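Hello,

Our lab assistant flagged a job as stuck in the queue for most of the afternoon. It eventually completed. Since we weren't sure the result was trustworthy after the delay, we are filing this so someone can double-check. Below is the sequence as submitted and the structure that was eventually returned. Let us know if re-running is recommended.
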Amino acid sequence: MRRGLSDLSVVSFEELKQLVEINSYTWNKEGVDTHGLLFSEWIQEIGYSEVRYPRETIGDHLLFRSSFIEGQKRVLLLGHLDTVFPPGSFEQFDEDDEWVYGPGVCDMKGGNLIALQALRAVYQTAGGIANIDFLLVSDEEKGSDDSTSLTQSLALDYDICLDFEAAGPNHEVVVARKGIGTFEFTVEGLAAHAGNHYADGVDANRIAAELLLELVQLTDLEQGTTVNPGKISGGIGANTISPKAEITVEVRFTKPSERDRVLTSFEELAAREWASGAKVVLSGRLQRDVMEPNRNQSELLYEIAEVLGYPLPTERRGGVSDANTVAALGVATLDGFGPFGDGDHSVKERALKTSFQRRLSEVTAILMHFNQFGSALEKT
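-- returned structure --
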């Protein structure tokens, strides 16, 4: 049962239960779309229109648009519909006096619900909402491979972005996240019989081993840069010189200069002549660029502190989110407006009930401040 507008001062865990019990594993298109449909029904009750971006193999991306007033600041709320749990693996919602449990309670169905209920409170108080839109993508948990270009194209229309990933343990919001990229080095050698024609072969496994040692040397912990060759494979069998080997490597970085250093080194390693007759092919991409603190973000934090009467605590995280994508475009971006929780990406995922209430109060005040409904020059 859905709560009415008169109940907006209390977080609706019954609604959270409805969302959580819909399996929205990234590759479960039907489930993700069902989740999106329920959310769409709720948000359209407060005057939002929906723009749907259909996808064939993953869930549709959804943009919910409020009325638009030209010449005023625009705010983008950001979330994702998908979770990491395949159907049948973890779908139950539970609660006790302190915590709610289930897939997505903190990552990030709980955060999405806080945004929705705050918007309801703004709508009830102000009579309408303008210049606050809400984007929900369907593939964040697999790296936003499909949605990144969409998020980039939409984000340029906004001045401010608030992302609803989970809060820190002291209700920190996130001001910085590492950038991330995943790449593959494919080493092409030449097969030969290890007994009769050893010298005729070109050993891809040996080259891959040398390459791996070069890759790990690119890590610079003082700069916050890690280069992790997390997977290596190659060869046919013990009696054959390996004709092919592959290394999958992840890079994380805290600043553009480190990104450029590592990517340049990757290209140089791929171009190096490791052995006569061998070839190294580099593939992959940057999934998300670095999210760095900047002046626009600092000014946003100050403005929010004036609204709330206290500053929000802040933190930096090594993990990534879609906030990286928006922040890299120069939009003033803050992340972590969801509830505090832990155990995310595991069957122990939970979120603190009192955290929902705190975040709902804070987000409602912030969105009331930025709501442009009733301003002059309103357009629909």
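-- support follow-up --
The delay was a queue issue, not a problem with the job. The result is valid. The radius of gyration is 24 Å. The chain has two domains: 5-178+290-379, 179-288.
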